[in-house]
Amino acid sequence: xxxxxxxxxxxxxxxxxxxxxxxxxxxxxxxxDHYGWSNLIxxxxxxxxxxxxxxxxxxxxxxxxxxxxxxNLLKLPLHGEQSTxxxxxxxxxxxxxxxxxxxxxxxxxxxxxxxxxxxxxSAHGGGLLPINQGAMRFYDRIAYHDYEGLSKGLDERERxxxxxxxxxxxxxxxxxxxxxxxxxxxxxxxxxxxVMSCRTQLLLEATGAPIRIPPPEVCERAAxxxxxxxxxxxxxxxxxxLRRIDxxxxxxxx
Length: 254
Fold this sequence. Notes:
Helix content is about 40%, strand content about 15%. The chain has about 250 residues and is α+β, with helices and mostly antiparallel strands.
């Protein structure tokens, strides 16, 4: 793929469950690139290895999102020494994602991006507002983490996990967006709605028009309705995501 890229992992060297996880995570990277959320080689999506809860998959630091495929993902231990750019791993990505995977065993996939609308909303004093149906999935269900500089120190992991709490989405103030889920599709779909919600709010606020927000009980009802249909994601949404990216490029499966 690129001259100094990582050695490829052969399908025969890993179990079927891990290979499928690799394919799914590679597809997620291609979809992040497709939606315009990537930032050259920066930002990160990671996935816990099925059957190996103390290991996770992550892209090599020097690969762009559209270069990621199943065989070139790295497998790293969740605990132990910090991986850095010297090991071709984004240091901040290691800090952020291991913080969540270690603290939340029910979560398997975490996604962090620096979209323009996400970065703008991350500096918004009022935070994300439930101004439309998509945004209401985050009603009382989004966390905030104050900016501490580049996430290089492992000591920040405790504060990231504490601030996320029991939520599955977080706005990292003055930084960007983060979502998590039990599956790749859960984290990806949450990010798609979070990015759209940030953009919609900024567009509305730019008009200067009064903002109408439904009563709290309506917002809570909508959030619960979103939660009630989340289990359809792997069955209905993920195949549609894959069909979309397969029409563009199937090399992520290699």
